[in-house]
Amino acid sequence: MVRDPICGMNVEPHTARFSTHRNGQIYYFCSQVCKDTFAKNSIKNSRKKGLLTRFLEWIARANKEKFHGEPPSCCGH
């Protein structure tokens, strides 16, 4: 399993319907919405995020999922 870089959902690479190649790496997505968001954000933010920024985003996603009890809206659940 790999993580969708936009919403953080786990994605199985062998069955993922949405993926893209960038800088020699393959990124997998749970939905077309996440893939499109990644493309838009990659154009705007060509720099990699720092460790602290990624950690804070991870905490925010975890809290949102824990306290709202719903998966992200991009996954169509």
Task: Describe the structure in brief.
This protein has 77 residues and is α+β, with helices and mostly antiparallel strands. The protein has 2 helices and 4 strands; from the N terminus they run ββββαα.
Protein architecture, described:
By secondary structure, this protein is of the alpha+beta class. It has one domain (2-75). Helices cover 40% and strands 18% of the residues. The protein is built from 2 helices and 4 strands. The two termini are 19 Å apart. The mean pLDDT is 80.
How is the largest sheet built, in terms of strand order? 1-2
- Give the helix proportion (percent range): 40-55%
What class do helices, strands and sheet pairing give? alpha+beta
Average pLDDT confidence is 80
* Main sheet properties: 2 strands, antiparallel
Order of helices and strands: EEEEHH
Rg calculated over all Cα atoms: 13 Å
> How many domains make up the 3D coordinates?
1
Distance between the termini: 19 Å
Summarize the helices and strands and which ones pair or pack.
Elements: E1 2-3, E2 10-11, E3 18-22, E4 25-29, H1 32-44, H2 51-68
Antiparallel strand pairs: 1-2, 3-4
List keywords for this structure.
two-stranded antiparallel ribbon; 18% strand; single chain; alpha+beta; 2 helices; two-stranded antiparallel sheet; 77 residues
